[in-house]
Design a protein that fits this description.
This protein has 115 residues and is of the alpha+beta class. It has helices at residues 42-61, 107-110, and strands at residues 3-8, 14-19, 35-37, 69-73, 76-79, 83-86, 88-89, 92-93, 96-100.
């Protein structure tokens, strides 16, 4: 069974997130204590992942012949202790990158001489 963690929102209120239980521990508590309070805010938890995504995006955009489009796709996992982390698939980190170059139309074939 998964556990629950409450992340406070910087603007007030909170969001409750289902999290994986910490291995090797078991939760014995009263009904009132079923939700663990996270160590930081929801926005602070996502800040590290946002910075990692911005850094990866800057790296791909700085390529010599940079792509016209960059798509970054990754899973985000929330934990009460660490906040947000990039989720893994199997034994490896989960980070998918899609780069796209758009070929410019050849102007010589579009405007044949004499038209």
């Amino acid at each position: 069974m998964n556990d629950l963690a409450r992340f406070p929102l910087e603007g007030g209120g909170s969001v409750v997130v289902e999290i994986d239980p910490v291995p090797g521990t078991s939760r014995v508590s009263r009904r009132d204590d079923l939700i663990e309070d996270a160590k930081g805010s929801f926005e602070a938890a996502l800040a590290n992942v946002r910075e990692a995504a911005a850094s990866a995006l800057a790296t791909f955009r700085s390529m010599t012949s940079g792509p016209d489009e960059v798509e970054l796709k990754f899973g985000v996992k929330l934990t009460a202790q660490a906040g947000a982390v990039i989720a893994k698939t199997g034994l490896e980190g989960n980070f998918e990158v899609k780069l796209k170059w758009v070929r410019q139309p050849d102007t010589a074939t579009e405007n044949p001489a004499g038209s």
